[in-house]
Amino acid sequence: MDLSRPRCRRWRELVLLASLLACGIRHASGRISITQILGIRGLRSVLVLQNVTQDAQEYSWHRGANDTAENMIVSYKPPSHTWQHGPMFSGRENVTKAGDLVINTSTLNDTGNYTVRVDFGNGTETATGYLNVQELEKRPDIWANTSTAVEYMGSVAAHCSTNATVIKWYVDYAQVSSNDRMTISPDLKTLVIYKVGRYDRTLQCETASIPDFPQRSDPLSLTVAYGPDKVQLSTSHIILNGVLAARIGSQVRMSCPATSQPNPKYHWMHNGTRLSVSEATVILPSLSWEQMGRYRCIVENPVTQIVMYQEFQIRVHTAGEAQYCCEQRLQHLRSQSGVAHRDNSPRRRLPLRNPDLRLGQPFLH
Ligand SMILES: *[C@@H]1O[C@H](CO)[C@@H](O)[C@H](O)[C@H]1NC(C)=O
Ligand SMILES: *[C@@H]1O[C@H](CO)[C@@H](O)[C@H](O)[C@H]1NC(C)=O
Ligand SMILES: *[C@@H]1O[C@H](CO)[C@@H](O)[C@H](O)[C@H]1NC(C)=O
Ligand SMILES: *[C@@H]1O[C@H](CO)[C@@H](O)[C@H](O)[C@H]1NC(C)=O
Ligand SMILES: *[C@@H]1O[C@H](CO)[C@@H](O)[C@H](O)[C@H]1NC(C)=O
Ligand SMILES: *[C@@H]1O[C@H](CO)[C@@H](O)[C@H](O)[C@H]1NC(C)=O
Ligand SMILES: *[C@@H]1O[C@H](CO)[C@@H](O)[C@H](O)[C@H]1NC(C)=O
Ligand SMILES: *[C@@H]1O[C@H](CO)[C@@H](O)[C@H](O)[C@H]1NC(C)=O
Ligand SMILES: *[C@@H]1O[C@H](CO)[C@@H](O)[C@H](O)[C@H]1NC(C)=O
Ligand SMILES: *[C@@H]1O[C@H](CO)[C@@H](O)[C@H](O)[C@H]1NC(C)=O
């Protein structure tokens, strides 16, 4: 049975919470061994004892490559559950019940050899490991020559401020490499995105001088203007061949939603005249004869300067047109106006002059 893997794992999980390491094996004079190659200044380091296959009487940790009494840091005796300090104890060390050496708030001076002696009662084993405590480099800074761009038009150059030589780049939190849209400089410190896209929302660079301890910059936000891609007409009535057929007095809602960054400007034209409406949706509460005719909704992105429009006509409904939608509409109006719904015959669905159906003032004239 290989006991090394699970114990190694256990500590790797702790690393994320508390501090450390890479797994590895150093020289051992018995079967036991020590793993811990890297420590980080200011964080906890753990020298993990491996391959202890029987109950121990004592774990004794020493500074240096041998296990002399002058070098002792701290020891732990499981039978009596007692700890003892040695001359090399600095106040930051302890031995766990599993025999591992824990060093709190590691300093660069903690770098060096460590030797453990394990007393099994019928014999002892020793192992030596080397701890390398490093300074964790600070998070890299990132800057770009602009924070705004127009989709497919603008270019952005971002620079990673670091002395690291291994640098990774992230766009919208996904790692990127040079491709047909972007280039990473040979020294890896600069990313240029040609023809910025709408999903290029954040830029980050990451360095990893110490394996397992990548340092990623704060996300740098890009505001990319785009769209409208298309304008979709949505109305309360069905539009057939560009014609919306509605009854006089009925309510007509028409809307031209569009996706755009920043939000687009909306204009509406009726019979070639601009209406004083600047919303995506227009509601004609009670359709009048003057409100018949040609309509055009215009959607404009002031930044991308893309303009799109949709056109249709409103005509008086003639029998048989758009039955389904009008029936629904009418039932809705009835419930709102409190008109008794007596039967479903087509004639009765047209109380054209019922004042109760005028839910508001005509919008246009
Ligand atoms: C543990 O000991 C076994 C043999 O006793 C050996 O094969 C294995 O490599 C050792 N593992 C470690 C991590 O030292
Ligand atoms: C312990 O190691 C030191 C060097 O680190 C050496 O000078 C000394 O002789 C060693 N002692 C024993 C008992 O091996
Ligand atoms: C090390 O730090 C932990 C948590 O911060 C604390 O519980 C423990 O007592 C410390 N050990 C030593 C020897 O300072
Ligand atoms: C080590 O930790 C134990 C608790 O796990 C504590 O009782 C003991 O005093 C500590 N020893 C040292 C040397 O700090
Ligand atoms: C590290 O060791 C040097 C000399 O070897 C000493 O001057 C310094 O104070 C030590 N630093 C710490 C934090 O122990
Ligand atoms: C650690 O021990 C090895 C031999 O086990 C020796 O070659 C090396 O110089 C020692 N390192 C330090 C910093 O004492
Ligand atoms: C000590 O005893 C265990 C069995 O209890 C045995 O596996 C081991 O080899 C012994 N060690 C020595 C050094 O005799
Ligand atoms: C940013 O840098 C890129 C690449 O050098 C360049 O094409 C672009 O014009 C620059 N943008 C601004 C706003 O300076
Ligand atoms: C890069 O290294 C130089 C000299 O070692 C140092 O002055 C500078 O602050 C470092 N830059 C960064 C971003 O770490
Ligand atoms: C718009 O044109 C339609 C048909 O051409 C007409 O019925 C309607 O009265 C006109 N309305 C306005 C306000 O021009």
Question: What is the strand and helix layout of this fold?
Answer:
Elements: H1 4-17, E1 33-35, E2 38-40, E3 45-50, E4 58-63, E5 72-77, E6 82-85, E7 93-95, E8 101-103, E9 112-119, E10 124-134, E11 141-144, E12 148-150, E13 156-161, E14 167-171, E15 174-176, E16 182-184, E17 190-193, E18 202-207, E19 215-216, E20 220-221, E21 223-225, E22 234-235, E23 239-240, E24 243-246, E25 252-255, E26 265-270, E27 273-274, E28 281-284, E29 293-300, E30 307-316, H2 323-337
Parallel strand pairs: 2-10, 12-21, 24-30
Antiparallel strand pairs: 1-3, 3-8, 4-5, 4-9, 5-6, 7-8, 9-10, 11-13, 13-17, 14-15, 14-18, 16-17, 18-19, 18-20, 22-25, 23-24, 25-28, 26-27, 26-29, 29-30
The protein binds 2-acetamido-2-deoxy-beta-D-glucopyranose (10 copies).
The site of one 2-acetamido-2-deoxy-beta-D-glucopyranose has 4 residues, from loops.
Region (Disordered): 336-365
Keywords: Disulfide bond, Glycoprotein, Immunoglobulin domain, Signal
Signal peptide: 1-30
